[in-house]
Write a structure and sequence with these properties.
With 249 residues, this protein is of the alpha/beta class. 35% of the residues lie in helices and 25% in strands. The chain is built from seven helices and ten strands. The chain has helices at 57-65, 96-106, 111-124, 140-153, 170-187, 198-204, 233-246; strands spanning 6-7, 15-26, 31-42, 46-50, 72-76, 81-84, 158-162, 190-194, 207-212, 215-221. The chain has a six-stranded mixed sheet, with helices on both faces. Strands 1-5-2-3 form a four-stranded mixed sheet, covered by helices on one side. A hairpin with a 2-residue loop joins strand 9 (207-212) and strand 10. Helix 2 packs across helix 3 (111-124), helix 3 (111-124) packs across helix 4 and helix 6 crosses helix 7. It starts with 5 loop residues before the first strand and ends with a helix.
């Protein structure tokens, strides 16, 4: 039966998110998405979840976002959480401006404040001149920038990123990596991101958590300066130690 201990209360201390023996079973099939996950995310941290497909990473994001509820254990998180999806998930009939404004208006934000916040995000995400375009007119990278801008516009305490760069070319991905790090350093918004690419996780996060078989299998602090040299000895060492655990039975 669903747990009664899922809460939007922020944990005390430095943690902003805590999972304590959290499980998730999807009925009626009885599919176990998470078995018993215990983890904590600190305020201002950039945490990246990696692991084999179908073993619980995106389920963790959905629980933090409030899109799913745990069936066991205790989850504590803040109320202000926003998520950017792999496909950007823009409303195709709305302009870039209106897509970014959508969440703000849903919150009842006064229109002058909406305009100021949208303009701020347009500048921050490099979208100047695209405000009146609609999603079908955008490149993949531009659309993903709009999706991230929409998420940031509501001033979340936690930003969730679900493989946001997986459909983009290498050049656009590298540019967005730089943008995300710059935004994180400027705002210190807590970021939890899912990636299938270990090199990407090491490039971005200050901690990588390996999720296997519905549980947190291992964690790896990443203590490298930004920007990170992907061919540097320390970078390759961190990639190698995560890869060893990733492929371990």
């Amino acid at each position: 039966m669903p747990s009664d201990s899922n809460s939007n209360n922020i944990p005390s201390g430095p943690e902003i998110i805590t999972f304590s023996k959290v499980g998730k079973i999807y009925e009626p099939q009885g599919t176990v998405a998470l078995s018993s996950v215990t983890l904590a995310v600190e305020r201002g941290e950039f945490l990246c979840l990696v692991g084999p497909s179908g073993e619980g990473k995106t389920t963790i994001l959905k629980l933090i976002a409030g899109l799913e509820a745990p069936t066991a254990g205790t989850l504590m998180k803040p109320a202000r959480v926003a998520m950017a999806f792999q496909s950007a998930a823009l409303l195709p009939w709305l302009s870039v401006y209106e897509n970014i404004a959508f969440g703000l208006r849903a919150q009842g934000t006064p229109e002058k404040a909406v305009e100021a916040k949208v303009r701020e995000q347009v500048a921050l995400m490099g979208l100047l001149g695209l405000e009146e375009k609609r999603p079908p007119e955008l490149s993949g990278g531009q659309a993903q920038r709009v999706g991230i801008a929409r998420a940031l516009a509501v001033n979340p305490e936690v930003l969730l990123l679900d493989e946001p760069f997986s459909a983009l070319d290498a050049k656009t991905t590298a540019e967005l990596h730089d943008d995300i790090i710059a935004i994180w350093k400027k705002t210190r918004t807590t970021i939890v991101m899912v990636s299938h690419i270990i090199e990407e996780a090491v490039s971005l996060a200050d901690r990588v958590l390996l999720i296997k078989k519905g549980a947190a299998a291992a964690e790896f602090p990443i203590d490298l300066p930004y920007p990170r040299r992907e061919q540097g000895e320390a970078f390759l060492h961190d990639v190698a130690r995560i890869r060893r655990e990733f492929f371990k039975d």
